[in-house]
Write a structure and sequence with these properties.
With 116 residues, the chain is mainly alpha-helical. 71% of the residues lie in helices and 0% in strands. The longest helix has 21 residues.
Length: 116
Amino acid sequence: MPEDQTLIIGLFAVIFVLLVWGRVRYDLVAFGALTLGAILGLVPSDDVFSGFGHSAVAIIALVLIVSRGLSSSGAVELIASRVIDPERPLPLHIAIIGSAGRCCQRSSTMWPRWRS
């Protein structure tokens, strides 16, 4: 196996272990892996930060910010307390959550598609 492939597999293994271990924040693990990949020459220096220009990066960042805000405000617990009832049987819980997911999916397909 070529040296580059060995380094990449080793880097992925270290990333996997650090993410599963959970003691280091995922954004620091990702940034450290990107930096180490650039230092080792696995990522061309011109392309190191080119992935941040993709619109999916902004969307994921916004989702993380909104979910943190909802969690910190207590909105998630409020909704969960209304939806989850310990007396309700499990199949009914599954039906309620499945229906809510289906409604969310249908409403998201009704929105107009923005073109980039």
